Every structure is written in C-alpha cells, then in structure tokens.
Amino acid sequence: MDTDLLKTFLEVYRTRHFGKAADNLFLTRSAVSFRVKQLETLLGVSLFDRQRNNIQPTPAGERMLEHANAVLTAVERAKQDVSLSKLQSVQLTLGIGHNVWDSFLNDFMQPLSSGLEDVSLRMDVISTAVMSKQLSERTLDIALSFDPLRIDDIEITKLNRVNLVLVSHQEGQTIDSLKQSQYIKVDWGTAFNIMHAQELTNLPMPKLHTSSAQIACEFMLSNGGCAFLPETMVKAKIQNNDIFLVEGVNPMRRHIYAAHWGKNERLDEIEQALILLTDKAYQ
C-alpha cells in the first residue's frame, strides 16, 4: 500500500479539512482529494463524510486510523533498521506512556546512550492502547507505563517509584483550604485514579484535566491552582519558593513498569537497557 496515501489520510483526519491538509503536505487540494479517493477505491469503503466545511471520518475511517498509524510506524522502523550506521547494529524502540518522560525517563537519556553504544534508540510517547497493540505486533521492544500491561507472553519489570506531591501556587495551603483553589488533575494512570477517588474527595472539580505534567505545571505557574506533580520536577521550584507543598498531604506513589516480549530477537539489548534503567533508579 502506498504510504503517501496513508499520510494524506492521516492529515485529513487530523485537520478535518482538505485545504488545510493540502497546505500542510505542500500539495494542491485536488491532489489531496485524489489520494483520499484512491485509498477509498483500494479499500472499497468511504473514509470521510464530505460536507461543506464539515469533513468527518466515517466508522470505516475511524477504524482505518489505527491501521494507518501501525503501517507507517512499521515502515519507519524498517527504514531505520536497514540504514543503521556501521557502529549501530541494533535499534531499540521504546513506547513511553504519558508523563513517564517528565517524571522518570528524562534523566535516563545519557545513561542509555552511553551504556548502549552500538544501539540506535527510538522513543515515542504513545497511549497504553497503542503500546499493547504494538507489543502484540512485535513492532515495539519496550513499553514504559504506570500501569503494568497485561498481555500474553509479555514480561513485566518494575523499574522505579515516582513520588507525586500535591503542590500549590500559594503558601500554607491545606487540603481543606484548596476548596477555593483551581485544581489541575493530571492523569497518572488507573491506580492513581482509584486512590484519588477514594482518598481525595475534598479536592474541587478540576479546572483543567490533562495527560501532561508539564502542561499542568506551566498552567499552575501562570494561572494559579494546585496539582499532583512529580517530586523530581518541582523540587527546585519548591526550594525557590515558586510553588509550595500543600500541608498534611502525603505523597502518592506510583511505579514505572517496563514490558517486553520475552522471545524478542533483541533480548540482550533489551535486558541491558532494563539494567541501566534499574541501576540508576536505585542509586
């Protein structure tokens, strides 16, 4: 299947507009329309409902989204695998769950790079659903997430603990005084949501709900409010009195889990990567 057709489909899906997709792809609008029509003819289904200024994916188009992303990811990986330099014999692909980078993995770029000298690394922030699918399809080597993935023949390694602290832009806040504050709820996974619902009923309804700790932190600094953020991210800001710990609230602890297929042909490199991650985590 022509990857240009898939790329065009994804851009129309993203923009919901043939003209905008054409601008982003440096094509004419008629070329974009022709490519989408080619793909629809190839598949034998309509991918979009075309109404003036209202382009919406059909049910078939919604289903096609996942397949298009998977094909393009596989093609990209194949290109990288076959074009590795003489000094890089293997490529490892890591799928990173939302917030895993900000709370944990950011500190590991140098240890991984220096510890895996002959390995090329690819890192993508993806959803848990995409991680599970790519692990099952063997297009992902290591998945890093807050909730362990439950897939047959997949091995799970507990890497590290992340402390989430409740911080506020105001000093001297308690859980009760936060009722008048803007709460920013960050998605820290299923276990966090369960603990949140059971133990933090006094918090106000979220002003902002986000899957990015960085977005939450920047919003709080600009607009005020409170949020659970990684201790490593806010430590310096607390020391500088830019933000403050909410009094009387214990940290909520989350673990980072690594998942990989036990029969992966790159198992030696995967195990070395996990050793590097685990060693630094507990130093």
Q: How many discrete domains?
A: 3
Number of helices: 11
Can you tell me the CATH superfamily of the largest domain?
Periplasmic binding protein-like II
Distance between the termini: 48 Å
The SSE order reads HHHEEHEHHEHEEEHEHEHEEH
Q: What is the name of the CATH topology of the largest domain?
A: D-Maltodextrin-Binding Protein, domain 2
Estimate percent helicity: 40-55%
**Most strands sheet:** 9 strands, mixed
Question: Given the helix and strand composition, which structural class is it?
Answer: alpha/beta
Overall mean pLDDT stands at 86
Number of DSSP-assigned strands? 11
CATH top level assignment of the largest domain: Alpha Beta
Oligomer description:
single chain
Identify low-pLDDT runs: none
User: What's the Cα radius of gyration?
Assistant: 22 Å
CATH architecture of the largest domain: 3-Layer(aba) Sandwich
Shape: globular
Strand percent estimate: 15-25%
Per-chain topology:
Elements: H1 3-15, H2 18-25, H3 29-43, E1 48-51, E2 54-57, H4 59-82, E3 90-96, H5 100-103, H6 109-115, E4 119-125, H7 128-136, E5 142-145, E6 154-168, E7 183-186, H8 190-199, E8 206-210, H9 213-223, E9 226-230, H10 231-239, E10 244-245, E11 252-261, H11 267-281
Parallel strand pairs: 3-4, 3-5, 7-8, 7-9
Antiparallel strand pairs: 1-2, 5-11, 6-9, 6-10, 6-11
Written description of the protein model:
The protein folds into three domains: 3-70, Orthogonal Bundle (Arc Repressor Mutant, subunit A); 84-160 and 255-281, D-Maltodextrin-Binding Protein, domain 2, CATH 3.40.190.10; 162-254, D-Maltodextrin-Binding Protein, domain 2 (3-Layer(aba) Sandwich), CATH 3.40.190. It contains eleven helices and eleven strands. The chain has helices at 3-15, 18-25, 29-43, 59-82, 100-103, 109-115, 128-136, 190-199, 213-223, 231-239, 267-281, and strands spanning 48-51, 54-57, 90-96, 119-125, 142-145, 154-168, 183-186, 206-210, 226-230, 244-245, 252-261. The protein is globular and about 65 Å long. The protein is of the alpha/beta class. Strands 3, 4, 5, 6, 7, 8, 9, 10 and 11 form a nine-stranded mixed β-sheet that branches. A hairpin with a 2-residue loop joins strand 1 and strand 2 (54-57).
